[in-house]
Amino acid sequence: MMSSAGKPSFAGRVRWRCLIVAALLAVVTPACRADGPWSASVGVTTDYVLRGVSQSYGGAALQGAVNYQSLAGWFAGAWASNVDPYPFYANAAEVNLYAGYDWALGRDWSARASLTHYLYALDPRRRPYDYDEVSLTVGYQDRLAATISYQPNSIRYATLGYRRNKPSSSYELSGRWPLRWSLSVTGGVGYYDLTHLYGVGYWSGSVGVGYTRGHLELGVTRFFSDDTVYRLFDEGTADGRTVATALWHF
Prior knowledge:
- This protein is mainly beta.
- The chain contains three helices and 14 strands.
């Protein structure tokens, strides 16, 4: 159902979200096991933010994941979320299919290499937006991680227009410092190079507080980014937004 302004009505958007929620639960539930190589999670966030840009137009998102981890270090899985990607009011489901390998670099250091395919299901937009990403992460214990990612076939829509099959890259540093009472301080910063897409790059980051107890993980995060994000994505920028997230691990 469409409103008089040509945008989906509230009831229409709720209906889309219900369908996406059902799909997420159908994916996650079969893999929920108490132990073993399989793991899963279901969560909700007040805003799905990726690299300084809201993927849900400032709205809530239900997210689910299922993952397989072998003793040898190989892993594979799927992660999904409802999205309203730019341009807005394009209700869809983002599904990330990934695989990779973990290995130790000593007692405290580790590394991870992964390949992820980002695909958009139930997407009413006429142009394709699926793309791939190769990432390498080096981590220190569970407190610090540095990641370099390369997208050989990036596809974006911004105020400067639609671009596809152009390379882009990202450089991210994230950290977590445990406190008392199961609390922790979290933070991260990243630079995203869109030179081949739009001739620019931008910075984005976040600071937050997390709480973990048993299977439950809660967090409140404040996002910030430079003016380039607003120039590219208008109201899609997450600069200045505070986001609450709840996650249940199986």
